[in-house]
Amino acid sequence: MIPFNKASITDLEVKYVTDALLNGKSSGDGSYTAKVYHQFKERFDIDNMLLTTSGTTALEMASMLADIKPGDEVIVPSFTFSSTANSFMLRGAKPVFCDIRRDTMNIDERLIEGLITPKTKAIYTVDYAGIPCDADVINEVARKYNIPVIEDAAQAVGSTYKGRTCGTLAPFGCYSFHETKNYVMGEGGAIILNDPAFIERAEIIREKGTNRRQVLKGMVDKYTWHDVGSSFLPSDILAALLCAQLERFDEIMNKRMFVWNTFQTEFKELEDKELLVRQYVPDYAVHNAHMYNIILPTDEIRTNLVARLKENDIFAYICYVPLHSSPLGHKLGYEPESCPVTEDYGERVLRMPLYADMTKEEVYKVIELVRDILTK
Question: What would the DSSP string read from start to end of 17-64?
Fold first, then answer.
């Protein structure tokens, strides 16, 4: 069987998790959490980062810090996971769905300004497949209207935009370390505070609305309730798992890149025959091989390909049902024609299996079977 995804776990992860279990500090903000922050500082020059219980809760924290309120409007791509929209809808805001580009499948930056109204409170971008949006254009629009940008970089740990690290391209950046991501802690995420003005409040929100983190830093001798917050910090046991993953950063990246590059090379022949469209990476981006997509000519061809691959114990999946045409999207009054490119691609995109420990034989088994199915 070739699964869709499989986390890469070695003796190092077992060693660190076991140590975290035995060292008497299994709650949040322990020694392994500190090591993770050091690793991100050393590799990416990221200073103001807070681990969270998920990428979802990182987005929720960003929505709170952006002071999103009931009645506000938030511009967001429809081609994303529900967490992106849930994070501000929980605050009572309304999603304003923006269509995507046909090349990167990221939010179409040319359409954003036309969606801005006096009620617009934020712009959420999604670095889909680990490929960053055109951040400079988006940030210019945001500055023009004094609207914050929240970068959902859940899939983009290790990717860059014009040499700048994804997650640092907006005032707030959000990562995911879910087991389906490149670097995992089971369930977990992080928020990056690229505007230092938000650091103190973020620490308070993350600790149930208290200034407990100031106690841990030795800044005060007792902590009290200061703001509305929740329990957004993960166990140090999970941080230990992530710490081991980050020590293996280059190994995991190189293995995933081999799989991605092999797909990209071998599927060119099928693209030349117009049997599929390969994933596109713009010149401004360096991606992290998070996922590999193909776009099929029709929904019927995609459905048949998925079924035939499954018959051979190979598991490939569609990415998203677009949010605007999902059951909740319909209840909110959105129509398929509101995001035509998203609607089209939602019916034709297929995500190939891709994980670090995927062998060369497994990669070529997938390629040969896709080739066989699409050419006969």
Answer: HHHHHHTT--SSS-HHHHHHHHHHHHHH---SEEEES-HHHHHHHHHH
Task: Say how many C-beta atoms besides its own lie within 10 A of residue 75's C-beta.
Answer: 26
Note the pLDDT of residue 337. 85
Nearest-angstrom CA–CA distance, 188 and 177:
5
Q: Mean pLDDT throughout 112-118?
A: 98
pLDDT for position 218: 74
Cβ neighbors of 171 (< 8 A, separation 6 or more) are 66, 148, 149, 150, 193, 194, 195, 198
Contact 107, 84 (CB under 8 A): no
Residue 75 contacts residue 115 (beta carbons within 8 Å) = yes
What DSSP element (H or E) covers 73? strand 73-77
What domains does the chain contain, in order, with CATH numbers?
11-247 (3.40.640.10), 249-375 (3.90.1150.10)
Examine the pLDDT at 335 and tell me if it is beyond 90. no
SS3 295: strand
Half-sphere exposure of 243 (CA within 13 A, CB side): 24
